[in-house]
Sequence to fold (386 residues):
Amino acid sequence: MTTQEKLDRSVMGTYGRFPVVIASGAGEFCTDESGRTYIDFGSGIGTSSLGYCNEAWTRAVCQQAQTMQHTSNLYYTKVQADFAEKLCGVTGYANVFFCNSGAEANECAIKLARKYSFDRYGKGRHKILTLHNSFHGRTLCTLSATGQDVFHNYFFPFVEGFDYVEANQIADLEAKLDDTVCAVMLEYVQGEGGVNALEQSFVDAIYEKCVARDILVIADEVQTGVGRTGTFLAGEQFGHRADVTTLAKGIAGGLPMGACLASEKCAKTLDRGSHGSTFGGNLVCCAGGLAVLETVIAPGFLESVQRKAAYFRERLATLPGVASVSGMGLMIGIALTEKSAAEVANTALEQGLLVLTAKDKVRLLPPLTITEEEIEQGIAILEKVL
Fold:
């Protein structure tokens, strides 16, 4: 029985998998069971932010695994303390809750916002506004927060207390910001929704109107954070720091880690017993996270991401069959003139290039460590496919 047959037989069929078995990886390349090598422009949907088996990351993770792999959050650990201190220092937040995924980080943010409002204003002020075309996770609560009808099926009843605003429509925002709202939740770039960045004027309006009403702003930076857009947080490029920011994906270089960061304003909201996670802040994941942080904040690293992103986008815009290039930094969406995104992704795989899709676009989330030479190698394949 082949690996694919074993997996299809034994694992629930919740994923549309490409017909390839990835066996190993190094840098920006991975190898399948037959020994064929692929350039990876997807990096595990943005999780392997330093590529495969980065030397500093591997050393940190292995050393921690040989020291202690996990202990309960009933105890203190140095690696979790060091990671939390550095993450808060880099982002400017007061404190952080660690969990295991982006969905869990967003669940934490939703609970924090509702408790913040309850503590100050009592019941009835619990609604959270999110944006149409958003994506915030696959738990029942974060599916309810997700502003895409395609996800609102099967699992009824969904969690109440959410409403949806048209992205970049200030009038719609104003109409829905009533006295029942406790938070507005946004993605600066809607990743699963098609790699579309919000307009500056709309982001400005959200912050202006929420500050005036003591409504929290939650920035879902699960996909945009940790250097993906060329700054540590995408919010930096919009000139704002949300009351609450969530991170995951590339935060620990491929290990399961999520984080919910709180500003001084709401840092005391979640108190003892109001939230928790058995595996949140796992020691090996924190060690991986520290290695990622130290790499990403090193002098010149984020500037190199910006430089490579500009080069990448410039080259993509010249390819045949490309209508436009969207997103920010190394979070790239490619709208096509003729071929479908699924067709391009499947044909690229056959040619030795891994890419992703988002709605009708080809989506690229390459490792932040990718070189211009590797970009050119992948673009040569993409050009042939197109």
